[in-house]
Amino acid sequence: MHIWTIKLLGFYGITGKPEVLQDKNMKLVFKGPFCIIRHPTYLAHTLIFIGIFMFTGYLALLILSILDFMIVSVIIIPLEERELLERFGDDYKRYVNNVKRKIIPYIF
User: Fold this and answer.
1) Domain total for the chain?
2) For the chain, which ranges sit under pLDDT 70?
3) Distance from C-alpha of 13 to C-alpha of 104, rounded to nearest angstrom
4) Which residues in 17-29 are b (16+ Cβ under 10 Å) and which e?
5) What is the pLDDT of residue 12?
6) C-alpha–C-alpha distance, residues 99 and 19, integer Å
7) What DSSP state is assigned to residue 57?
8) Among 8, 32, 96, 104, which one has the highest count of C-beta atoms within 10 angstroms of its own C-beta?
9) 34 and 40 Cβ atoms separated by less than 8 Å
10) 59 is a domain residue
């Protein structure tokens, strides 16, 4: 999933540079995993940490996965969504209305 989001956004798009540099050439992505959840990159790296924990059994990796998920959910996503709303305005509002889930897809 991480490679898929990099392919859709480009490496430059996932680094945070567009937000810092206020790059006006960036566009919202509505396809691929972005049509199911708004932040698939964060889900992907949380799943990577959990997968490595399951492979190695190191409890520290499970703790890191949980802390990472909490920080992303409570701090990073709200900041990013505020910036996206400022940058894309009504387009982003429509996207949020169409894609309700932030990071965990609705499975059932």
Assistant:
1) 1
2) 2, 10-25, 108
3) 21
4) ebeeeeeeebeeb
5) 57
6) 21
7) -
8) 8
9) yes
10) yes
Which residue type is seen at 59? L
In a domain, 21, yes or no: yes
Residue 47 inside a domain? The answer is yes
Q: What is the pLDDT of residues 67-89, one digit of tens each?
A: 999 999 999 999 989 988 988 89
Q: Is the overall model pTM greater than 0.85, yes or no?
A: no
Euclidean distance between CA atoms 70 and 59, whole angstroms:
17
- Which is it for the CA torsion 96, 13, 41, 65, positive or negative? negative
pLDDT confidence of residue 87 = 86
Domain of residue 88, residue span: 2-98
Enumerate residues 6+ apart whose C-beta is below 8 A from 35: 99
User: Among residues 48, 43, 54, which one has the least CA distance to residue 105?
Assistant: 43
Angle (CA) 83-15-49 rounded to 5° is: 105
- Residue type at 1 in one-letter notation: M
Q: Would 38 be classed as within a structural domain?
A: yes
